[in-house]
Amino acid sequence: MTAGTQDATVPAEHSRALHAAIAHSSYAEIDAGHVMFFERPQEFTKLVSDFLTA
pTM of this prediction? Predict the structure, then answer.
């Protein structure tokens, strides 16, 4: 699960709570808003790639 620290649509605290409720989930925050894949494409792609190869 990822969250944007500047996301006004889905605040990071909501994502943190969801992460806490899902056993064995992983969580990362990116300094971005709701469309982090446009705002921080390299950082977002690395997070997803690292997750898929783990």
Answer: 0.84
